[in-house]
């Protein structure tokens, strides 16, 4: 299986980078992983709604340019579907059974995802109603993908 993660912004903190490297290494046993970072747009504090939408749309265009052809698009959205880790693993397994062997997860910028991106999403997924820093969320997503593969293969993993 191929997994692409498209994310807005770069990782700056070394501890996040180390965690991402660790989960990327672990995942290499189960899939081909590619992480694509698109630059975030500068967003000053007091933006008007129109300015915010302009930033979201610019970031959305950059994201869409990077989505691999014929991949299954999964957007990470606060209002998306929440699943248990077991349900998430079953969903990934079902994608594979259905011949959807390239999953593309999208993590938007601090202002969210454009409607252009969410419209093409085949699964809108949420880990929580809470908001997380994008850098931390990337680590959390990698961990859950790793956990899903362990569950699919009936390999032990902390419950």
From TrEMBL:
Claim: Ribonucleoprotein is one of the keywords in the record: no
Keyword Endoplasmic reticulum (UniProt): no
UniProt GO cellular component terms: cytoplasm
Domain of life: Bacteria
Residue numbers binding S-adenosyl-L-methionine: 108, 127-132
Compartments in which it is found: Cytoplasm
Name of the protein in question: Ribosomal RNA large subunit methyltransferase H
Organism whose genome encodes this protein: Alkalibaculum bacchi
